[in-house]
Amino acid sequence: QGISWNTVRYMIGEVQYGGRVTDDYDKRLLNCFARVWFNESMFDSAFCFYTGYKIPVCKTLEQYFDYIQLLPAMDSPEVFGLHPNADITYQKNTSADVLDTITNIQPKESGGGSGETRESVVYRSAEDMLEKLPPDYVKARLVKMGALNSMNIFLRQEIDRMQKVITVVRTSLNDLKLAIEGTIVMSEASKNLRDALDNMYDARIPQVWRRVSWESSTLGFWFTELLDRNAQLSAWIFQGRPRVFWITGFFNPQGFLTAMKQEATRAHKDWALDKVAIHNDVLKLTREEITSSPSEGVYIYGLYLEGAGWDKRRSILVESTPKILFVQLPVLHMFAVDST
Question: Are both 228 and 315 inside the same structural domain?
Answer without folding.
Answer: no
